Amino acid sequence: MIACAHAQRLLPLLYDGELESPLRRELSRHVTDCSVCTRTVALLNRSQELLCQTIDDHIDDVDFSGFWQGVEAKLSQPPPFWRTRVSGWRESWLAFWSWRTPVWATAMAVIVLAAVQFLLPPSPQEQVTKSLVSENNQAQIESLSTSNPVLVWNEPTHHATVIWVGDESMEEQR
Amino acid sequence: MKSSPALFACVFGALLWATVVYAGEMVELRIETVLASNDSPYFDTRLEDIWRQVSSTPYNSYRLMQEERRKVEWGNQVDFSLPGGRVLQVVPKHFASERIALQVMIMEGAPPTPLMKTALSIKNHGTLFFGGRRHQDGTLIIRIGAATDE
Predict the structure, then answer these.
(1) Residue B15 within any structural domain of the chain
(2) Could you report the predicted ipTM of this complex, rounded to two decimals?
(3) Are B106 and B86 within 8 A, CB to CB?
(4) Which end of chain B is more exposed for a tag (fewer CB within 10 A), N or C?
C-alpha cells in the first residue's frame, strides 16, 4: 500500500511515463482511490494542456526564414586562430573567477583547516595521558582553607569529589 | 587590482584559525545548586543525570534551585550568586594533562566574607560537589562542572 505523501512525489514520474510496471500499477490504483492525488493528476493534465496551447498560439509568430542561412554562414567561417581561442578562454576563465574567488577561497581554507584539525592523529603520549586520566574522576586538591569543619570524600559511582563545609552543629555531632 | 584566490585563502584561513584558537581558549563553567532536605520525598527530574552522585548524601528531597552556565577565559574570575546571599567565585587557572585547574571560593554573610577557599583540579568535563551550608529547611549542594575543547 503506497502512502499518499510518497504518491504525491511519484505522480510527475507517473505522468511522464517513467515508472516501472509494478509501481505504476500500484500508484494508479492509489490515484483511483485518493481524491487528493486525483486532483493532483488533474492539475498536471491542465498544466500540460495550457503549455501546449501557449506553444501552438505563438509558434506562428516566430520567424524561422533566416535560420538555416545563419547556421550555414556560421559553419562556413574559418576556425579562429589558436591564440584568439586561448585569449577568449582566458577571459572567460577570469570572468568566472573574479566573483567566485572569495567562495572558492573560503571553501579551500575550510577544507584545509578541517583536514589539519581532524586528520592529524594525536601523539602517542597524548593518547596515553587521555586513557590514564579518563579513569580518574577525582579532584586533586592542592590547598583548602576554612575555619569551619570540612569533610572530603569521593562519591561511590563516578568518584566525583564532595567537599562538605559544615557548621557548628556538624562539629557537635562529630 | 585583481585579487588572487591564494590571497583570499590566506586571509580567510587566518581569520578562521584565529576564531578556532580563541574558542578553544575558553572554558565553560556549569553551576547547579540543589536544595537537599528531609521533607517529603521529592526528586527533581532535572537532576536525573546527577542522581547517583547526590544520592550518597542522607536526604530524601532534592530540588534544583538554580542552574547557570558561563563561558570564560582562562584566568578570569567569575562570580555566581547562590541562595542566601552567598557568592561562589571561580577562577579557571589552566588546562594541563586533561585536567582543569580551578580556584574556588565560597563567600557568605553581609558583607560577604570568605567561608572556604580551595585550589584544585578536575578532569575535563568532570564535576565537583560542595555542600553543607544550611538554607531554609535544608542544605545546599552545589555541583561545579568545567569543560574545555582544548
Answers:
(1) no
(2) 0.80
(3) yes
(4) N
